[in-house]
Every structure is written in C-alpha cells, then in structure tokens.
Amino acid sequence: MDRARIHHLSMGIIGLSLGLNGALTGVSDVAGAAMVSGGTCPAVLSGYSLLTDADSSIGRRGAYLSAFGAVLSVVGTALTLLG
Prior knowledge:
The chain is mostly helical. The protein has helices spanning 3-25, 29-52, 60-82.
C-alpha cells in the first residue's frame, strides 16, 4: 500500500475518533464542540486528499507513526466510550 494513502487514511481515522469522542462523551458544550470541529477538519481534509490523489511525500517512518497513532486513537476512544 502506498505510504501517502496509509498516512491520509490514518489521519482520517484519528479525526473521526476524536470527533466521535467529543460528540458522545459530552464533557461540556464548548469542549465537545471543539473536539468535534477539531476532529472533523482532519477527517474531511484526509478524505479530500484520498479522493483527489494529492501528491504528498511522506517517509516510511511517518506513515507508520501515523498508523500507530490511529490505532492508539481508536483504542483510546473505545476505552473512553466503554468505561
């Protein structure tokens, strides 16, 4: 799989999990809205980059770090919602 595709997909997953966490946990109105908007922006931009095949040069280490961050983000959101 292409490194740029892994990176953009991982950033989209991070954005979705952050937005979902903000929408469902209900910390406060301002904090929840900030998390939703802060999660929506990377998700939308990553989706746009994937759809338009934007040329981005990212190294192997950067792609793997963003994939690891996506895994941590999903696990953190799951633990927050289940706990």
